[in-house]
Amino acid sequence: MASRILVVDAVPTNRIILRVKLSAAYYDVVQATSGQAALAMLRKAQPDLVLTAADLPDMSGRALCAAIRQKSMSGPGPAIPVVVMHDVDEPGERLASLAAGAEDVLTKPIDDVVMLARLRSLLRARDAEAELRLRDDTRRALGLAEHSAEFAMPGRVRVVSPGPQPEVRGLVNRLRARTDDHIELVDAEDAPRDTGHPPDVVVVIESPGIAGLGLSLLPQLRANRTTRQSMLIYIARPHQRKEAASALDLGANDLMTTGPDVDELVIRLKKQITAKRLGDRLRANMRDGLRAAVIDPLTGLYNRRYALPHISRLADQADALRRPYALLLADLDHFKQVNDDFGHAAGDAVLVALSHRLRDSLRAADLIARWGGEEFLIAMPDTDRRKAQRMAERLCAMMAKHPVTLSGNRRITVTLSIGVAIGMPAAHDKPADLVSRADSALYAAKNKGRNAVVMADTLRALPLAATRGPLPPAPKPNPRLPPLDPLAQRDTGTDGATMPPWGLSRP
Prior knowledge:
Elements: E1 4-8, H1 12-24, E2 28-32, H2 35-45, E3 49-53, H3 61-74, E4 82-86, H4 91-99, E5 104-107, H5 112-141, E6 156-161, H6 166-178, E7 182-187, E8 201-205, H7 217-223, E9 231-235, H8 241-249, E10 254-256, H9 262-294, E11 302-303, H10 304-321, E12 325-332, H11 335-342, H12 344-361, E13 367-372, E14 375-380, H13 385-401, E15 404-405, E16 411-412, E17 416-423, H14 431-448, E18 453-455, E19 491-492, E20 498-499
Parallel strand pairs: 1-2, 1-3, 3-4, 4-5, 6-7, 6-8, 8-9, 9-10, 11-13, 17-18
Antiparallel strand pairs: 12-14, 12-17, 13-14, 15-16, 19-20
Helix pairs in contact: 2-3, 4-9, 5-8, 5-9, 11-12
């Protein structure tokens, strides 16, 4: 859907000209003739950007800008960017409009190329902020975050001067005297370097002689890992209109077309640092939300949502490398009794203790996930049957040998039952089937008496009569066949002991 721009101007000819130019650029244009009409149009038309004249019949463009900013700050979405159009280029009026909250100031006659590039840049920034805010709001609605306090910290500003520009050093000194931000002056070749503290803003001052030296730095700064998220301000000279328009499409966040002016740069730096801090906070909240979606909050292990696609990737890798992998499904024995006898806090302590012991005992490449309740899934790449069985037996012995210390210095011993399934490359086992086989082996370990390890390949497939649901009527005996062995459905575990059918419900 095309972005909607509200044009505010009392002169009909000006509105018509702007509407034609913006409509040709595929924008949806709405119009207002006064400041009050524009404020009413905000609720009705919900524009994405406002383009207003500096002089209106009922108020100034600056007053309208301040009113729009106040309304935007009280709303849930991002602020509506406002661009003010001045009839003449007066530095004082320009600074006053920027200080009132205008994102930019255009002076008539307006350069169409620069204007359209500026509008594209502002709308891209607003859409990006809106997406981050939407994800942040969703995360808060899920209870995954709390509002954090804002701390005003000095910004880090890197001023880049391509080519010899003696006046730039004086500009940097004046900036340092006007702001608490950390200002550093670097050469063009040092602009993307990693100093351990990525800059909040990079200011590129175009050379007055050879045009385009600073312009060529913008794609490098935007692609570099150190400065990728930094805000970029491009300062062009008055005669460099083409470079100014290109800078916005090459990644610049803000633009100055009147050369390096310290008063204007101070205002723009403050805005860009604020925008950078907001973007950083929203991105951090989104990363934390994604982490919260795949991490179990109690144990700090991955959850089932993360484990399922991980097992699929592990299976694909095993097939490609033609190496086996193992899935271990472990369950705490008599865990309900722990909760009943000692309380749920004790049960949580047992789960946390087990998760720590699993981390300490397994390799970094092994996945440990809380599968649900007191069940844990362990995925071990490049692991054959013998290694998997030895590891499972080691985990059982470790849990049984070392009691868990509860509050009040109470100690309880909790054991593990583990089912193990091996994925072989030649077999092309589906991960879901392998998990099901490990779960069946875990049932068998429970029925075997708990504190045991059962390998899935020692189990026989259950006949239909052992599946859940009503049993079918018994078939009539065939006198031509020998009598059925009552132990035909029993199997042996790893220690050779017989065990009951593994399809029974887990105690």
